[in-house]
Amino acid sequence: MEKGKVYTYQGFTFQSEEELAEAKKEAEVVAYIRSQADLGNVKTVVKLYNRLIEKGTLVTVLGIAFLQELRSRALDTGTVAESSLKPLPEPVKKEKVRLNPKMTKERKLLEFYKEKSKRLTFTVVVLCIVIVILFAIRLFGTASPFADHEQKVLDEYAGWKEELTEWDERLHLWEDQLTEWEKELLQREQELQ
After folding, report:
1. Is residue 1 part of a domain?
2. Rounded distance, CA 181 to CA 193, Å?
3. Does residue 92 fall inside a structural domain?
4. What is the DSSP string of 126-149?
5. Which of 9, 98, 118, 136 stands the most exposed, by the fewest C-beta atoms within 10 Å?
6. What is the rounded distance in angstroms from the CA atom of residue 124 to the CA atom of residue 126?
7. What would the pLDDT profile of 104-140 be if each residue is shown by its tens digit?
8. 152 with 113, same domain?
9. Which long-range contacts (CB under 8 A, 24 or more apart) does 4-9 make?
10. pTM, to two decimals
11. Under 8 Å between Cβ of 40 and 47
12. How many CB atoms lie within 10 A of CB 38?
């Protein structure tokens, strides 16, 4: 920025680019208010004026000029007392803040650590995603613990099946022996009678 340079916008002069940028933002706000609000209604004008003053929305000379216009509209109707309107604020001028060398070092360190923090956060998120993917592969992949457990159950069931068939065969043998003994007993009974 050149020393002593003056910026002009909508008939107002500004001492710095920052003030000019702020005034341009306020000009957009004023244009929006003009398009949306019913400025012909006195109650709306008074309410809008007082709310803008309370919130400190308009602080540049351009914004104060709009507030002055709203104030004049309200007072020109003759239905609004001047005491019901808040006083106009003083325009705020932004001065360029000169940073001392320590402040710039602190800012540089702050920016450095912010960047490191972003990178670290990104790394942590990526690692968490990788861990979740590895768990999913372990649980639902071919070598999952469920597959191992299923195989163990199948092996154990196969062993039970073999044991059951052996016991079934033994039972059939015992049953056959019992039927033979029963026949022998019946024969002996018949002989004894």
Report:
1. no
2. 18
3. no
4. HHHHHHHHHHHHHHHSTT-HHHHH
5. 98
6. 5
7. 788 888 888 999 999 999 999 999 999 999 888 877 7
8. no
9. 9/62
10. 0.46
11. no
12. 10
CA atoms within 13 A on the CB side of 53: 18
Q: What is the CA radius of gyration of the chain?
A: 47
Same domain, 156 and 135: no
In angstroms, the CA 154 to CA 159 distance is 9
Which pair of tokens denotes residue 69? Answer: 């216009």
Distances (CA, A) of 93 to 127, 179, 187: 49, 117, 129
Average pLDDT of every residue of the chain:
81
Task: Looking at the structure, tell me whether residues 79 and 107 fall in a common domain.
Answer: no
- Residue pointed to by tokens 């001065």: 95
SS3 label, residue 13: strand
**Domain span at 178:** 144-193
Copy the structure tokens of residue 101.
């060398």
- Res 4: pLDDT: 65
Q: How confident is the model at residue 3, as a pLDDT?
A: 59
Q: Choose the most confident range, by mean pLDDT, from 1-5, 110-114, 189-193.
A: 110-114
Amino acid sitting at position 163: E
Q: Please write the tens of the pLDDT for every residue from 30-88.
A: 888 888 888 888 888 888 888 888 888 788 888 888 888 888 888 888 777 777 787 77
| CA gap 35, 3 in Å, rounded | 38
Distance of alpha carbon 6 from alpha carbon 16, whole angstroms: 7
